[in-house]
Amino acid sequence: MAVMDRSRHVATVTRAFAEGIALDTRAAARTRVARLRGQGPGAGAPLTHADPLAGAVLADPEPWFRELHRRAPVHYCPPRDLFVVNGFDEVRAGARAHDVLSSGHGIMCVRAPVPMLVAMDRPDHSRLRRILASDFTKARMDLLRPRIEELATAAVQRVLDGGAAGADAYRALAAPIPLDVIAAILGVPDADRASLHRWSDAAVTGFSLTPGPAGLRDVLSVVKDGSEMFEHFEREIERRRAQPGDDALSRLVAFDDDQGRLTTDELLWFTLLLLVGGNETTTSLLMGLLLAFARDPDAYGRLRSDPDALIPKAIEEGLRWSTPIPGFFRTANADYETGGVTIPAGARVMLSFGAANRDPSTFEEPERFVLEREVKEHLAFGSGIHFCLGSHLARLETRIVLETLVERVARVELLDEPRWRLNPSLRGIEAMRVRFVPA
């Protein structure tokens, strides 16, 4: 791709975000006026005036979840001109109603479409997912086990080496493992790992863009780092066209079907999706489990006493309890009825996976991490056609970390309170000092 084409591509994405932020800002203002007049699209729905994008709610969503579940499974939020779907059954149904609740207008809170698999509708989504799925089968993920075991052993040792002073579990353990695994899948050399981390951070910021001046300012930094990442992977794509390797990017570059090869843009957006979906979400799951075991040492002791039986349960309960992707956004293509509410065509909808996974009508004592809980189903990986492609990988990485932990660590101790990332689509702990007591 020529430099001019790349500049045009970056400009297009920048414009999409900027226009989406401006559009949502104007729409919210119009809706507030309409509500004051007793009109507006949310007139028939219970209201929630808590702003789901506010820092206080993002830092501690539990009180908001409780209020939502106490009243109804679907609410309307006037401050954001947004329908919030919070009941478990309603969120699951909404995730599966992909032809009515569209992802193609953008899955972040800003109404900005980007050509990424998770933000596509059928038929484009169907073709791309079919192509990518072959690299994320359980069998292929299991081939990564030796590498993940090396990474887990080294990461646990880094925290143990901190002794009484401990270490930041995010930097020492939870962030490096998934990032290195994604680098191995993409065939990224060790020398580029620091850049990969920086690009991942920029992508996470992109998922938190909100309407208003702050969102417009963040667009500039996101696009700057994003364009640097795209330039890097454009070179890698060209290199693999000339000299393919044994990695996912090489296989995708070489793929050809009756509709032709994947375009460079499709390949670039795939790398971005993998960087975020296969990295940050697993990091957040690992941090959530460490927090749970630090706060409940008895549960960790039971895990150590029967790891074969309890590690799989810990992973599913950790996914439910931490829900690394707390919610994605949709746009109604037509009127959509759910939870006794008619969501009108054109409305923006938040499918709150975090709230659904804390629904007391589905989970007893949902705010507690219960190690032995039999979690038959949760929505941490979504549902329907957008069910997470990397679910096998996330479970494998987490299982190996827990296996390493119970073998080498007798107790996890919390040295300071966690600092949470304030992101409506990628929630997780971004700093937390812990001490590992050696076994």
Structure, described:
The chain has 439 residues and is α+β, with helices and mostly antiparallel strands. The protein has a single domain (3-438), classed as Cytochrome P450 (Cytochrome p450, Orthogonal Bundle). It is built from 17 helices and 14 strands. The chain has helices at 3-36, 55-59, 62-71, 88-96, 124-133, 138-142, 145-161, 169-174, 176-186, 193-206, 213-242, 248-254, 264-295, 297-305, 307-322, 353-356, 391-408, and strands at 74-77, 82-85, 101-102, 167-168, 256-257, 260-261, 328-332, 336-338, 341-343, 348-351, 409-414, 419-420, 429-431, 433-438. Strands 1-2-10-7-3 form a 5-stranded mixed beta sheet, covered by helices on one side. Strands 4-14-11 form a 3-stranded antiparallel beta sheet. A hairpin with a 2-residue loop joins β8 and β9. The protein is globular. The termini are far apart.
What brief labels describe this structure?
439 residues; 3-stranded antiparallel sheet; Cytochrome p450; globular; alpha+beta
Which strand order does the major sheet show?
1-2-10-7-3
- Assembly context of the chains: single chain
CATH class: Mainly Alpha
Gap between N and C termini: 54 Å
How many domains would you count in the coordinates? 1
CATH topology description: Cytochrome p450
Classify the secondary structure makeup into a structural class. alpha+beta
Q: Would you count the extended β strands for me?
A: 14
Radius of gyration: 22 Å
The fraction of residues assigned to DSSP E strands is: 5-15%
The tally of helices reads 17
Tell me about the biggest sheet? Answer: 5 strands, mixed
Roughly what is the average pLDDT, rounded to an integer?
88
CATH superfamily: Cytochrome P450
Q: In the CATH hierarchy, what is the architecture at level 2? A: Orthogonal Bundle
